[in-house]
TrEMBL record:
Organism listed in the record: Chloroherpeton thalassium (strain ATCC 35110 / GB-78)
GO terms, molecular function: ATP binding; ATP hydrolysis activity; phosphate transmembrane transporter activity
Protein name stated in the entry: ABC transporter-related protein
Highest taxon of the lineage: Bacteria
Any Pfam family the entry gives: ABC_tran
SUPFAM superfamilies given in the database record: P-loop containing nucleoside triphosphate hydrolases
Length: 255
């Protein structure tokens, strides 16, 4: 069994003439939380979006190099983008549930990913309960399954956005500044949730909050101007970074 979920080798990405990722080679530990930090515009979101090949939606994007997810090169011609995006789920800065019920948000993925299959109501009910339990929302929402998801508290919306990935049995969950719309208490609870999900899932989180990186992640990647400057255990990054640019950033000298 590979101990890494994601491995990149010499990954480069251009938006038109602008090179946003430069020669990134890294190995992301399986079942752990890894955080991605660095000044605004350094390429964190771009790197995250490589892992489910969503960048390709943004026209005029060119990528070179290799990305392996669970030992499979995701640029191989036989890769299914649908399967890839089931295996690699994503959560965004602003919670973005669909403007339909809690229940329908959770079964949506199952329905669109299962083609002609007819789901029994009991199977769907079970998927909903299990996904909501997976994010500790079951008690709060079991009597509100028909409520419109967009009417929930932001914290519940964000947890629901995580919950709706779970029925698809993802290997990796990408989170792009998932707490930036939440207050401090809600942030703490979402961090608790990430810790519960780690182990079963590999979590990659972009954060501009260095304390958050320190609290939740086992390993940390520091990026600058499209380069991966340093990748090390989080404690090492914060207590004895090797690169002076990392030290300057975590001491708040820029960014
Ligand atoms: N769709 C796009 N088209 C052109 N340039 C982009 C696009 N998305 C991001 N960029 C540029 O790529 C660089 C990295 O952006 P991004 O990955 O969003 O950084 P971060 O998430 O670290 O703030 C920035 O200079 C940004 O302006
Ligand atoms: Mg970003």
């Amino acid at each position: 069994m590979n101990e890494y979920s994601i491995q990149t080798r010499n990954l480069n990405l251009w938006y038109g003439d602008f090179q946003a990722l430069k020669n990134i080679s890294t190995d992301i530990l399986k079942g752990k939380i890894t955080s991605l930090i660095g000044p605004s515009g350094c390429g964190k979101t771009t790197l995250l979006r490589c892992f489910n090949r969503v960048n390709e939606r943004y026209g005029n994007v060119r990528t070179t190099g290799e990305i392996k997810i669970l030992d499979k090169n995701i640029y191989d011609s036989d890769i299914s983008l649908i399967e890839l995006r089931k295996a690699v789920g994503m959560v965004f800065q602003r919670p973005n549930p669909l403007p339909i019920s809690v229940y329908e948000n959770i079964v949506f993925g199952l329905r669109i990913h299962s083609g002609e299959r007819n789901w029994q109501k009991s199977e769907l009910d079970e998927a909903v309960e299990s996904a909501l339990k997976g994010v500790s929302l079951w008690n709060d929402l079991k009597d509100k399954l028909q409520a419109k998801a967009t009417s929930l508290l932001l914290e519940q919306q964000q947890k629901l956005c995580i919950a709706r990935l779970l029925p698809l049995k993802p290997q990796v969950i990408l989170m792009d500044e998932p707490c930036s719309a939440l207050d401090a208490d809600a942030t703490k609870r979402v961090e608790d949730l990430m810790r519960e999900l780690a182990g079963e899932y590999t979590i990659l989180i972009v954060t501009h909050n260095m304390m958050q990186a320190r609290r939740v992640s086992e390993e940390c990647l520091f990026m600058m101007l499209g380069e991966l400057v340093e990748h090390a255990p989080t404690e090492t990054i914060f207590s004895s970074p090797k690169d002076s640019r990392t030290a300057d950033y975590i001491e708040g000298r820029y960014g």
